[in-house]
Design goal:
Number of strands: 12
Largest sheet: 8 strands, antiparallel
CATH topology of the largest domain: Outer membrane efflux proteins (OEP)
CATH class of the largest domain: Mainly Alpha
Shape: elongated
Number of helices: 8
Strand content: 15-25%
Distance between the termini: 65 Å
Order of helices and strands: HHHEEEEEEEEHHHEEEEHH
CATH architecture of the largest domain: Up-down Bundle
Structural class: alpha+beta
């Protein structure tokens, strides 16, 4: 095998030479990274799906508003057309009857509704035509004690909440996709660091094998064959790492929709030392778990109060041609009371025209055994739900404290790590410059010069990877909040 001379192609392809490393933080590279990020987000299918879900949630909110708002209901009722034969006391002919009805609903005003109904019969026979409206009724119904208003409020609030959470999901997915983007970029930098090590190892093994050849070792000797195999293994490992980087970079470029010839020389930096401290008290209420616990407690209390046992509603109206009072006009009043499976309805129809002055009374009593038996269980469930919500709130506050401690520790560690990488980079850069000078004088070997340069590139790439980890840390912190 002829000696092969390996240069650090991966360092050249995926990172700039050490001579310009100190000037790597350029706005041009920052802009390129941001363009890659924009393309990555635009191509993210989950964001597109969540946008559709947000529009669905908006439709759901509009539906809830319509279903629980002012409404008009018109009905013709049952219409009949039939022929009646002549009898001793009635002439024959065609008869048409209908029961038209109109209802206006105002759920926002104590579940109030206004209804107008007018059953009518139209008869045509040999004596002429006549219409006989009967029981024409105008009535008003409203709740005095009822949970309908709270139920309506809970439904509307849940619809608003669903839309809010759908929009938050878009924001959170945007942050998560940004995290994925930077994490992939970090992995590419770390792969480049590993590739430098593999290339350096391959070069070292090749030098050792070349020296064995020059020293005249037999090709059949164990020492010669061992060095030969080690060199081949090192070349294969370096080649496999290079191909892996090429594949991963091509895949990353497809996700971004932008060609990538070389990894960026710089990434947008975050000033972790001067950024707002994690765990500010004014941020606590926006912590996602706490905000969710507060919301669940509020809507839970509202829903429980909307399912009370006592209901009381009142009805009033006027009936013209009341069939119960000899077709006189009457004023109608009524009350309906409900309590744990027992319901009582009372209605009085008072004549206001004609000679008849005696009212007509209606009474209805109903009993549901299971509803009464379930009432104490409902109360117990409400109590347990309230207790569960209180526990969830305490747990959310504990999660806040744990998250703050964890993120503060990780932030301090990363700040220290970045400083250490910068110090190492400066040391390696100075050493590399001295090595180049000594190499020109013939005092050091090519292998030592290559190793010094590789150390500079590794240190620079570690700085970039650490800068990305800091950005990911702040993204992780943002993901813990509502995003409003």
């Amino acid at each position: 095998m002829k000696p092969l001379v390996f240069i650090l192609t991966l360092a050249l392809a995926f990172a700039p030479r050490h001579a310009r490393a100190e000037n790597s933080a350029t706005g041009e590279d920052d802009g390129f990274v941001l363009r890659l990020l924009a393309g990555y987000l635009n191509n993210d299918p989950q964001l597109q799906e969540l946008a559709v879900r947000a529009r669905m949630a908006e439709t759901g909110r509009e539906r809830a508003g319509l279903e629980n708002g002012f409404d008009i209901e018109l009905s013709s009722g049952m219409m009949r057309l039939y022929y009646r034969s002549a009898a001793a006391n009635a002439s024959g002919g065609w008869i048409f009857s209908a029961e038209p009805k109109a209802i206006l609903k105002f759920p926002m005003f104590n579940n109030t509704s206004v209804s107008v109904s007018s059953p009518v019969t139209f008869e045509a026979n040999e004596t002429g035509r006549n219409a006989s409206p009967e029981d024409v009724k105008i009535s008003l119904s409203t709740d005095i004690v009822s949970s309908a208003g709270k139920q309506r409020k809970a439904v509307l609030l849940k619809a608003e909440r669903a839309l809010l959470e759908a929009r938050r999901a878009i924001s959170r997915r945007g942050l998560a996709a940004e995290r994925e983007f930077y994490d992939t970029l970090r992995q590419l930098y770390e792969s480049a660091i590993q590739a430098l090590t593999f290339e350096e190892e391959a070069y070292t093994k090749e030098i050792e094998f070349a020296m064995a050849q020059r020293q005249g070792y037999s090709a059949s000797s164990v020492y010669y064959r061992t060095l030969q195999l080690e060199a081949a293994d090192a070349h294969r490992a370096a080649s496999e790492q290079r191909r892996a980087i090429e594949r991963n970079t091509a895949s990353f470029a497809r996700d971004c929709g932008i060609p990538i010839d070389a990894l960026p020389e710089a990434v947008p930096k975050m000033d972790a030392e001067n950024a707002p401290e994690f765990g500010r008290e004014e941020d606590r209420s926006r912590f996602a778990e706490i905000e969710s616990a507060i919301w669940n407690s509020y809507i839970g209390a509202l829903s429980r109060s909307a399912s009370g046992h006592l209901t009381l509603s009142a009805q009033g109206g006027v009936t013209a041609g009341n069939s119960y009072l000899g077709k006189e006009t009457s004023a109608d009043v009524g009350l309906t009371l409900g309590w744990k499976g027992v319901s009582l309805s009372v209605e009085s129809q008072i004549p206001v025209s004609g000679p008849e002055k005696r009212p007509a009374l209606s009474l209805s009593l109903a009993y549901n055994m299971n509803r009464q038996r379930l009432a104490p269980l409902d109360d117990a469930e409400k109590s347990l739900q309230a207790e569960s919500e209180a526990i969830a709130f305490k747990t959310a506050n504990r999660s806040w404290e744990n998250a703050v401690d964890s993120m503060r520790t990780e932030r301090e560690d990363l700040i220290w790590e970045v400083k250490r990488h910068h110090e190492q980079y400066e040391l390696y850069r100075e050493l590399s410059e001295e090595t180049d000078e000594w190499f020109g004088r013939g005092a050091v070997t090519e292998s030592e010069r290559r190793k010094a340069r590789a150390n500079v590139e590794r240190a620079r790439l570690r700085i970039l990877a650490a800068d990305i980890r800091i950005r990911i840390l702040f993204i992780d912190w943002s993901l813990k909040f509502t995003g409003d």
